[in-house]
Amino acid sequence: MTRHGMPRRRFVALSGVLGAGALLTGGAGRASATVQAGPVAGASCCPCPTDPNPPGGGQAPCPPSHLQPLCGSPTDTDPLWQDVQYCTQGIVPPSGQRPVCLKAMPNYVVLHGTPETRHNYLLLPSCRITGIECPFLVTTTVANYWHEAWENARRGGDVPVCFPDIGLGVNSQTARHLNQLHIHMAGVRDSTQRRLQDLEAAGRIAPQPSQWGDAQFQALVTGADGTGDRTYWILRLSTLTQNLFDLLSLYVMRRFGLDMAGQTLMVVPKMTSTGFADAFYVLNSDSSLHDGTNTCDHLLVYS
């Protein structure tokens, strides 16, 4: 189910970053496809690639060189970082395996997760950022990757997650084995959605970021992998316009003297029978909590 402890990706020979609609072949037996200009008309949930050519205007600032020991160097050979470089610069990975670049923008790219399903994708920064521990993520100049992940994954987005309930998540440094920041765009069980709404109704979800770490807003949530309940700090936000990494650092990490490298962070959009309810549940956990976890894989559904 996983490669190196995380959802894997199936590679095919496809790229549009080398020219509009350009198609590369990667050897015998590789699948080929054309890049569509956007989602199929009338399809509310279709993982169709959009225009893979990054538009003009440049990207948001990337980590400065003095942060490379913590955030990674552009010369690193991490496989996910090589995929990003292929999608943004056309640099073919040393393996010769070319990922499907579902979307490439100045600030991020979207790739398939593995198993390759219609509810398993990854959003990765176009900057070299190893993961949640990179201090650049809590600055005011970093791109809002969580907002971009939601805008792509939502119904009607460019790379929609075809699952009744959507979940976004980042693993801790200790729970991952590939080191380019990637937000999982996947599904969550309806039982997870119901549990979060029940907790909100019972006043068990923090209404303000400053209250996120309060004891009454710790709660057990049953995951999708059959491993039992896990404890999370849970916050409700009306939008994803704030920097979630910074909120986590300010109101939970500093408060309890915790390390960002050990954290998992997740977002579950609130859904009702009429659709998106204009709210997001933000969940954080780590191994310091009783029954805590440092991976988002317990809640997300990939296959």
Architecture overview:
There is one protein chain. By secondary structure, the chain is α+β, with helices and mostly antiparallel strands. Helix content is about 15%, strand content about 20%. It contains five helices and twelve strands. Strands 3, 4, 5, 6, 7, 8, 9, 10, 11 and 12 form a ten-stranded antiparallel beta sheet that branches. Strands 1-2 form a two-stranded antiparallel sheet. A hairpin with a 2-residue loop joins strand 1 (about 1-5) and strand 2 (about 5). It is globular, with a radius of gyration of 19 Å.
Question: What's the short story on this structure?
Answer:
The protein has helices at about 70, 80-90, 145-155, 190-200, 245-255, and strands spanning about 1-5, 5, 105, 110, 120-125, 165-170, 185-190, 220, 230-235, 265-270, 275-285, 300.
Structural class by SSE content: alpha+beta
How far is the first residue's CA from the last residue's CA?
Answer: 9 Å
H/E element order:
EEHHEEEHEEHEEHEEE
Task: State mean pLDDT (0 to 100 scale).
Answer: 85
Give the % helix.
10-25%
Low-confidence stretches: 1-43, 46-57
Topology, number of strands: 12
Inertia-based shape: globular
Strand content: 15-25%
The number of distinct helices, counting runs of at least 4 residues, comes to: 5
Main sheet overview: 10 strands, antiparallel
